[in-house]
Amino acid sequence: MLDKIKAGARAGRYRLVYFDEASFAASPPGQYGWSPRGKPHETEPLTHCRRSVLGALNYPDNSLFYQTVSGNITRADVIDFLTQVAR
User: Where is each Tc1-like transposase DDE domain found (predicted)?
Assistant: First the structure.
């Protein structure tokens, strides 16, 4: 079935776009810590800058569209990106 879809996209009957999202952080989240006996466990939050990337590969002509976002991706970011790719 995928071969038929790819053939239709190559013939120009429709567009086939592979879409993905990935996020990266400069430092990992705090996963362990220690505390003196009898005291509650505490960890200091790590301040880091998170980057997110939206990417779409247009199958027939092998063109790549991408957008970077500082922080987390929202639904509005995805809708805006896919609207731009659809043009």
Answer: 15-86
CB 52 within 8 A of CB 20: no
Question: pTM of the prediction?
Answer: 0.67
Q: In terms of residues, how long is the chain? A: 87
- Token pair, residue 37, equals 């006996």
User: How many angstroms separate the Cα of 51 from the Cα of each of 20, 27, 30, 42, 67?
Assistant: 14, 11, 18, 27, 11
Q: Which structure tokens are listed for 54?
A: 């939206």
- The model's pLDDT over 2-42, given as tens digits with 9 standing for 90+, comes to 899 989 988 988 889 999 999 988 776 666 667 788 887 77
Count other Cβ atoms within 10 Å, centred on residue 13.
Answer: 10
Q: Where are the domains positioned within the chain?
A: 16-22+48-86
Token pair of 41 as six digits: 């466990």
At 49, is the pLDDT very low, low, confident or very high (cuts 50, 70, 90)? Answer: confident
